[in-house]
Input
Amino acid sequence: MLSTISVINWLLYIYTILIVLNAITSWLPFLYNSVVGRYLNKIVEPYVGLFRIGFLKTIAIKAGVDVSPVLAIFVIYIIQNLLTQLAFKLI
Output
């Protein structure tokens, strides 16, 4: 069970890195429109898009600041902490 939690934590860490890379490529159009950028966007966008709703979408459009990647990473961080606490309870 502990190894499963470790693998899940590792995968969440990698996904967090992908979210950050996608945010960085969105600032650079030549990277964002490249093959790698489009593939990265297909991986990350379904999850990050969940946080781009309502008021946050309005802010992203009007102010040009999209905070949905930050919120997505924060939720992953909470999940990782819960998994770590579960792992310590299993020991």
